[in-house]
Design goal:
By secondary structure, the chain is α+β, with helices and mostly antiparallel strands. It has helices at about 5-15, 125-130; strands at about 35-40, 50-55, 60-65, 75-85, 90-105, 105-120. It has a single domain, classed as Thrombin, subunit H (Beta Barrel). Strands 1-2-3-6-5-4 form a six-stranded antiparallel barrel.
């Protein structure tokens, strides 16, 4: 499945989630998806770590952490994605955002930007190829 197709499906989910639901304050539905996640601060000072996603929506991710990540800190998450490109190339969802709530072993981010990448592509190579 091409990355464009995956993004089209994600956009359809976003459209469905925008429909109002009685008694629900959240704008987006949360899907209970447990995947491996690696996180790191977008600025120095936060020790990188690993965890598991607890749920994902079009606007946020709740995940387990090894450390307490303070509210307001910007992080980048790299989430193993359950769909592969044609030919068996694994994907990851890379999401950036700000921690909006936390507890001792969990954090929730509000997604500000996301993209799908092949799992084998380093950030440096991605920057070289895309200029971003």
């Amino acid at each position: 499945m091409a990355i464009e197709s995956i993004e089209r499906v994600l956009n359809m989910v976003i459209d469905i989630e925008q429909a109002p639901r009685k008694g629900e304050r959240r704008i987006s539905n949360r899907f209970p998806i447990e995947r491996d996640v690696r996180y790191r601060g977008t600025r120095p000072g936060l020790r990188p770590g690993c965890g598991k996603t607890i749920n994902i929506s079009s606007s946020g991710v709740l995940f387990t952490t090894e450390i307490d990540i303070p509210v307001g800190v910007r992080v980048e998450l790299s989430i193993s994605w359950p769909v592969e490109l044609a030919g068996g190339c694994p994907l990851k969802l890379v999401a950036r955002g700000k921690v909006v709530r936390n507890s001792r072993d969990r954090a929730a981010i509000e997604i500000e930007k996301y993209e799908f990448r092949t799992s084998g592509m380093s950030s440096e190579l991605h920057t070289m190829l895309t200029g971003s």
